[in-house]
Write a structure and sequence with these properties.
The complex is a heterodimer of chains A (about 290) and B (about 270). The longest helix of chain A has 21 residues, at about 150-170. Chain A has helices at about 15-25, 35-55, 65-70, 100-115, 120-130, 135-145, 150-170, 225-240, 265-280, 285, and strands at about 1-5, 65, 180-190, 195-205, 215-220, 250-255, 260-265. With about 290 residues, chain A is an alpha/beta fold. In chain A, strand 5 (about 215-220), helix 8 and strand 6 form a beta-alpha-beta unit. Chain A has one domain (about 1-285). Chain A is built from ten helices and seven strands. Chain B is an alpha/beta fold and about 270 residues long. Chain B has two domains: about 1-70 and about 160-260, no CATH class; about 75-155. Chain B is built from eleven helices and eight strands. Chain B has helices spanning about 10-15, 25-30, 35-45, 55-60, 75-95, 100-115, 125-130, 135-155, 205-220, 245-260, 265-269, and strands at about 50, 165, 170, 180-185, 185-190, 190-195, 230, 240-245. In chain B, the strands form two sheets. In chain B, strands 2-5-6-7-8 form a five-stranded mixed sheet. In chain B, strands 1-4-3 form a three-stranded mixed sheet. In chain B, helix 5 crosses helix 8 and helix 9 (about 205-220) packs across helix 10. Classes of the chains: A alpha/beta (about 290), B alpha/beta (about 270). The interface of A and B includes residues 86, 120, 183, 191 and 242 of A.
Chain lengths: ~290, ~270
């Protein structure tokens, strides 16, 4: 992944234009993937999942695994780190903390920016967006309980993130079909093991046999390498869902103003499956 | 359940040739069904009348799995389907060029309705109208995603006209004012009904979809026309296909019985 220079070195209007140009580049020659690839990757994962089921027992409740369990925790947060609850007994979410609340707020502000193209007061807008999602009630309570000084610090932090996001986030025309928070859940072993994650942003329409989507990930902090691995993980899930991966990934680092764009290749997917198979064999991950 | 990888796409599942029905067997399977349903509703009269929805059927079927009741409240998640479908209707009608534009217009229209004289000031419209702009944007974003996933999953030009988006069908029992059943589908084309599913895959899903088939059969009792209900999970791409046949009616009846009578469905049947 090409890591582009920090914001301070660049003209403020250039970031999002360059991200958009990088996403469009070569879009007319989208790669075709082996139609058997997804089936092969799935078969590899199914074998590993069956061993998990053997170890846990046929009657054990479904095991929901996301990036947090499968890629390890390493500071910083992706949207995908959180259990989103739709699966019922997912990973149970995370203990509320200021970094997590910041990530939640940055995420909803990113969503607002993609949907409307503008953000007003970041803290006010972010809280208003969190309030319409009952799953974010803890985050709202956390912010409301903050002392004045901490709240002001949070507002300043958010303003920094939003400044970077405004610079980095392309304004996609409606024809790109931008959709935020696209959730993927891949059942294995007859639904006893479920791999899940959430794309922060997907653009493009799926085309059978051709990689035609672009995925944009957002991280509000933490190691760049791990955030990139989360995107590779999501690309694998998309491959299992639709048969082909996104052809290009972009990663936006809202704290630092960095961004990177890369093509997804078969070796990324194979490496990720290999990693997941190892993680599924780890009793600490599967709770045995 | 079908394997989503390299398997039939959603459009193919909708358009695959329908299984023809044996009119005699179908008629026999339908015989007495309305009467039985109204009898069950009468047995469970306390707390009625019963207007059973897919939500109640799903709750009843999942009770063995420890499902818990959550009071309804409008949220990004509960509003996304209605707004997403309204947006898609606009796209199909040519009033919007994409789900983003369609949903944007649907949100503005719904929020605007709440202030109009003569329009009921409750429900989703009122909730939307009272939200601050960022809250409404969050609701719109969720609906855009819901609508775009459905928009991208289907080859709309291949579907037979007319395509009906998001219209609920109700069967009102002719024998009892106590009972009505709802068939909810997101896209209907001819005798084929597409239901977008959410939550984890569950073994009860065929029973849920069978209730949709049952309602459609009850609404046209004299017809033995073939039909199909397809359930689709956007999260995973998995499909479940339920073709109309006598056994499907029995499965649907059992599900309704469970919703009406709880554990005593066997006795009721």
């Amino acid at each position: 992944m090409v890591l582009v220079a920090p914001l301070s070195d660049r003209h403020p209007a250039h970031g999002r234009d360059e991200v958009l140009a990088l996403l469009r580049d070569g879009a007319g020659q989208r790669p075709r993937f082996d139609p058997g690839l997804a089936g092969g990757l799935r078969a590899w994962l199914e074998d590993a999942a069956c061993l998990v089921v053997q170890a846990r027992g046929e009657d054990a409740p479904p095991l929901f695994l996301g990036p947090r369990q499968l890629l390890g925790q390493a500071g910083g947060w992706f949207r995908s780190e959180e259990g989103d609850g739709e699966g019922g007994a997912e990973d149970g979410g995370a203990t509320m903390s200021t970094p997590l609340v910041t990530a939640c707020l940055v995420h909803v502000l990113f969503r607002q920016l993609v949907t409307t193209g503008a953000v007003g007061d970041p803290l006010v807008d972010g809280l208003a967006a969190l309030r319409v999602d009952p799953g974010r009630a803890d985050a709202v309570r956390h912010v409301e309980a903050l002392p004045v000084g901490a709240r002001a610090a949070l507002a300043a932090t958010l303003a920094n993130h939003v400044g970077h996001l405004i610079d980095l986030t392309p304004r996609f025309a409606p024809g790109w079909l931008p959709r935020t928070d696209d959730r993927v859940a891949i059942p294995l072993a007859g639904g006893r093991v479920v791999l899940h994650g959430v794309f922060d942003l997907l653009v493009g329409a799926p085309v059978a046999g051709t990689a035609s989507l672009c995925a944009v990930g957002l991280t509000s902090g933490g190691p760049w390498a791990r955030a990139r691995r989360v995107l590779h993980y999501l690309a694998l899930l998309e491959t299992l869902r639709s048969g082909t991966p996104p052809f290009r990934l972009a990663l936006l680092h809202s704290a630092a103003g960095h961004y990177g764009v890369e093509d997804i290749r078969e070796e990324h997917l194979r490496a990720m499956v290999s990693h997941l198979v190892r993680r599924l064999a780890d009793p600490a991950v599967t709770g045995d | 359940m079908t394997d989503p990888v390299g398997s039939e796409r959603l459009t193919d599942a909708l358009l695959a040739p329908l299984t023809s029905l044996d009119a005699t067997a179908w008629g026999a399977a339908l015989e007495g069904v309305p009467e039985n349903l109204s009898r069950w509703a009468a047995r469970r009269a306390a707390g009625g009348p019963w207007r059973l929805t897919d939500y109640q059927i799903r709750r009843a079927l999942s009770s063995e799995e420890g499902g818990s009741e959550t009071p309804f409240a409008w949220s990004t998640r509960t509003a996304r389907r209605a707004l997403g479908l309204a947006g898609l209707q606009m796209v199909l009608a040519g009033d919007a060029r994409s789900p983003v534009e369609g949903v944007r217009a649907a949100v503005a229209r719904a929020a605007g309705w709440a202030g109009e004289e003569g329009h009921p000031r409750w429900g989703m419209e009122r909730w939307l109208a009272e939200l601050p702009a960022p809250g409404r944007a969050a609701v719109g974003a969720e609906a855009v995603t819901w609508a775009t996933r459905l928009w991208c999953a289907l080859d709309w030009k291949a579907l037979t006209s007319p395509i009906i988006i998001g219209r609920d069908h109700w069967w009102e029992s002719p024998h009892s004012s106590l009972l009505a059943l709802r068939s909810r589908a997101d896209v209907r084309t001819g005798a084929v009904h597409l239901v977008c599913l959410s939550g984890p895959r569950r073994h009860t899903v065929r029973a849920e979809l069978s209730v949709v088939a049952l309602v459609e059969a009850l609404r046209s009792p004299g017809s033995a026309a073939p039909g199909r209900v397809v359930g689709w999970w956007p999260d995973s791409g998995h499909l479940v296909r339920v073709d109309m046949e006598p056994a499907v009616l029995a499965t649907g009846m059992a599900a309704v019985g469970k919703a009406l009578l709880g554990g005593s469905t066997g006795a009721a049947a």
